[in-house]
Q: What sequence folds into this?
């Protein structure tokens, strides 16, 4: 039995890690071990899959709570919903309590009888990194994945003779599972003869050895929608591993990372832009031109006497809202920059200014008020 590494250890975080720190840890490791950055490195590819699986569980509050309580056992036994099969809408499947209750009460409640739960090939995960501009406008990205696809030699049947060489499983009669009496209960489990496929092959294909699938590298064009956020997971139905022998393919999950931008910082649908102003600009007032995430420019009027920390709101100049034509707002954050490397004339002018300003308490009200409070503090101490 393979040893399963603790998901927290896989992501190199503590069990009390916050959601934000968990996302940062995942993003750092995903970028380090991504197959595109480690071509031909099987160990890096395996590590990337482990990281993605661990993050898929721990980023979800319900899955994380189940993992913290039950460990890997919470995702075993073939149930749906989790990476190993835990079903958060019930107790799991494949012989779990959900199947037991269905056998007991299915007829009375009008539920199904017979006919197994739909199986599919394994889901696979990959990672793609995009720029903030691409996240704003949406983009189509090519992603490379190594997966299992239908065998071309036998057309996915697993038989050298094609469909004619495939027979209905004699043990489960095509249901893919068998029932067993356990005391008062009737439990359903995957058929041990066909392993849940519902079909058997007499003369296995020499290429895929009867599995119906072979490993292959594929390139898919994935459409990233406008407004997507860092850490978003996109599900592409049917693009996972082929199931083989008539079983539908699994799904592909694409984890999206948005790289940091040199000018903008995003917070939901709003964007922040930090703009440094010269001391003279802030004191006298000015008009500046700033970039907008959509590639345009806009002008912002800065009033005289503007201080560091002042915000200016530009409505509708922010980020795209996912699945909507709306946009957030853009906020200009002002910082007043102190001049450096002054020449003799500049120093002389500033000294004259300081002398003039020192006699006018209204020119620097915060400065004057602060040192007045300092003076009172020491007088009271005395």
A:
């Amino acid at each position: 039995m393979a040893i399963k590494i603790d998901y927290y250890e896989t992501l190199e975080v503590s069990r009390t890690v916050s959601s934000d720190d968990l996302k940062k840890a995942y993003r750092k490791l995903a970028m380090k071990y991504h197959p595109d950055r480690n071509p031909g490195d099987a160990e890096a590819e395996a590590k990337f899959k482990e990281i993605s699986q661990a993050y898929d569980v721990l980023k979800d509050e319900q899955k994380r709570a189940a993992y913290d309580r039950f460990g890997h056992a919470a995702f075993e036994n073939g149930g749906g919903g989790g990476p190993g099969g835990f079903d958060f809408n019930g107790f799991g499947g494949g012989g779990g309590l959900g199947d037991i209750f269905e056998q007991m009460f299915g007829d009375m409640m009008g539920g199904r009888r017979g006919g197994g739960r739909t199986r599919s090939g394994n889901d696979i995960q990959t990672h793609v990194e995009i720029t903030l501009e691409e996240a704003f406008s949406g983009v189509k990205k090519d992603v490379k994945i190594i997966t299992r696809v239908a065998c071309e030699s036998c057309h996915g049947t697993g038989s050298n003779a094609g469909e004619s060489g495939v027979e209905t499983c004699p043990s489960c009669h095509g249901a893919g599972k068998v029932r067993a009496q356990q005391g008062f209960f009737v439990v359903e489990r995957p058929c041990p003869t066909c392993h849940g496929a519902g079909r058997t092959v007499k003369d296995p294909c020499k290429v895929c050895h009867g599995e119906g699938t072979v490993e292959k590298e594929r390139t898919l064009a994935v459409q990233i929608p406008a407004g997507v956020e860092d850490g978003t997971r996109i599900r592409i139905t049917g693009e996972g591993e082929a199931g083989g022998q008539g079983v539908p393919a699994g799904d592909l999950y694409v984890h999206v990372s948005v790289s940091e931008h040199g000018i903008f910082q995003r917070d939901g649908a709003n964007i922040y832009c930090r703009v440094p102003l010269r001391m003279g600009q802030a004191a006298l007032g000015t008009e500046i031109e700033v970039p907008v995430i959509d590639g345009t420019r806009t002008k912002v009027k800065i009033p005289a006497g503007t201080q560091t920390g002042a915000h200016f709101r530009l409505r509708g100049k922010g980020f795209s809202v996912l699945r909507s034509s709306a946009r957030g707002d853009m906020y200009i954050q002002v910082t007043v920059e102190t001049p450096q490397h002054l020449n003799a004339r500049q120093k002389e002018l500033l000294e004259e200014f300081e002398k003039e300003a020192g006699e006018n308490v209204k020119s620097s009200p915060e400065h004057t008020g602060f040192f007045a409070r300092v003076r009172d503090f020491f007088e009271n101490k005395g």
Observations:
- DSSP finds nine helices and 15 strands in the chain.
- Residues 360 and 368 are 10 Å apart (CA to CA).
